[in-house]
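User: Can you predict the 3D structure for this chain?
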Amino acid sequence: MADATPNTPTPVKPPKPHARLEKWIWILIYGGLFLLILGIATGRTDAALGWSMAVPGGVIALVGVVLIYVRSRLNDKK
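Assistant: Here is the predicted structure, written as structure tokens:
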């Protein structure tokens, strides 16, 4: 019986060494900005709750931006 799969090798994608870091960068940026905007909107009715949501959201988004800089300085070669 003939083999259904040819003997040609399947192409292998090169590994992306910092994929997890890049995923967390965008999660932090978008999540932080969402929390910041939600805090600003909430601050119109309850100032204390709005500030307690907006400030951590801004800090989280800033951490994501700093991680972009850190990622740019990492060496991709092993």
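DSSP finds two helices and no strands in the chain. The radius of gyration is 22 Å.
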